[in-house]
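Q: Okay, next protein. This is Protein Lines homolog 1 isoform X3 from Vulpes vulpes. I've checked the sequence twice, so it should be correct. Can you predict the 3D structure?
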Amino acid sequence: MFQNSDKLLCHMAAKCLALLLYFQLREKITLSNSWVAFCQKNLSEYPENEKVVYCLWTLTVIIKEIFKDTCSQKTEILKQFLTPFDTIFQVFYNSLFSLHFKSCQDTSKIINSMICSLELLELLIASRIHLKLHFTCQRILFLKPSCVLDVITWPVEAFVKRKFIIFIKKCLLWKVGEDLCWGSGPALMPPDQYLDVDMLALADAVLQAVDLGLLKTLSVRGKPPCFGGDEVQPACECVHGPDHVILRAASLLIIKSLEIKFQSCASANEIKVDLQSFMSELLTFLKPHLQPSLQSHNPCEWISRVFIEQDDDMLEAAKASLGIYLKLTRQCKTTEGLTQEKEMWNHHTHKYGYNPHCIFLFLLKNIGFDSSVLLDFLISSETCFLEYFVRYLKLLQKDGASFFTICKYFDVTELKDSINICGCSSSLVQDRSSNQTELSLWAALGSHRNAHASVPWASDASGPLNQPVMSKEPHITLQAAAGLSPPQASQSLVDYDSSDDSEVEVTDQHSTNSKQTSLQQEAKKKFQDTVRTGTDEKELSMEPQSRPLVPEQSNINIPFSVDCDISKVGISYRTLKCFQELQGAIYRLQKKNLFPYNATALLKLLKHTESIYNESMNSL
């Protein structure tokens, strides 16, 4: 059947043969010696022998069936199957990836063999993760990683590069084989003795490839989806963006490889040099594909911008950057007493996009400070949010001052952007009233100006780092000036014991909305009376909020002045409010035994954020 010209028939024949062979393995029947010899011959004689693809199909299906099986003897079955092929796989791997692609006449056959071998290689690594086996063929990628990385630089189709770069990303994240089992996912085995060495070898190979220009060989331009064909009609103008799958995979390759490498690095200077080199190259690579450009924004925003459509990858990148920060922090403790060194350190974390506080705040802004989203992340087993969140909350306990300082910079930046945007929408009348209004706004934020030198993005790129750029435009939307988030649908996390509880909450919510609307209308009227510039009334309009973001006793109904407490409506307050809502939701679920794990330690960390916030407010 393998000699048939019908490829589909050959593929079905290989699958039927694989099921028969698996049945023999399952029933402990000795495999056919002729079939084993056939596969060994074809694999060892590649590329002269063109029947290797049929062997790869058969081998792949057999290993997949072993993973799908629910029996308890999977490890023994796979061990029996891999034993005669361990050495042959290594020979085939070396032959396949040592080919000179440009000199080959029929490149389609090579690409077909590579795609099939990549799937088999993934299964072998997955068996190492989820089954307690230690064959050399399972480590072949880590022993010779440059062979696979070189394929990405070959002049092959974009989909081939995409498959290989996603495969390497899975290997670095140790997530190979998560989708192989039906039903519940396979359990992770304890790491073997070679894991740390192998991961470090792969990370070093990735960074070396990036240093040699790997990112320049990637095809990032996205292709428009075409229903019923692969061509766009000439009359149809299609504007399509970059391939975000490639952007995410390439970003994760670099940030995860840096984290793995730095875990075994003892020199702070070496870490800083590598971090500066590779993060500069990554940000330069991302810059043309992110609009608006990162140049006019905080470089730490790159994670939220690149991974906004992929939660699990975004949290992996955030966790890796946090690991890098913590490692570098421990290495730099000897210079804590030097003010100049601390300023340079703060500047470095922002310039190269790995400041953990900025990254976390951008994450919260992306989800609208919605605690229900964080709760979903904590309950889900599909992301690493629990590990990341616990590590960040522990950092927040030790580094609360830096967090609140960065929150102030966020507030100032949002206010400055609002001034600039609103100022461009209408002509301005520079009278004393407008100038006094602006000065009072900046006076209210006077404590935010002190340390701009440590956060380069907080000021305009053309001005000195220690001078905030204050626009002369007096037109400000009240919502932006108050630091309020855009209107968002409130998602309640109350556990209802009966429908009556639901009705009570709906009534309370309507009452809250009406109070908030009246407060907003009063604030709007007084703000308009203060700023008499003839601005269109639409600029000062405010949508009713689904829930109050500031306490009723705050002075939101008073126009902004020196006495206005901006800290209670800024991003630090919204963050604390989100933490409080999350803490309450977790407590209610755990009290009813509905939370999937013991969250006592997490609740203590969340509770501690209140004392950090109170200490910060008392120090103002």
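A: Here is a summary of the prediction. The two ends are 81 Å apart (CA to CA). The first helix runs from residue 7 to 26.
Q: Noted. On to the next one.
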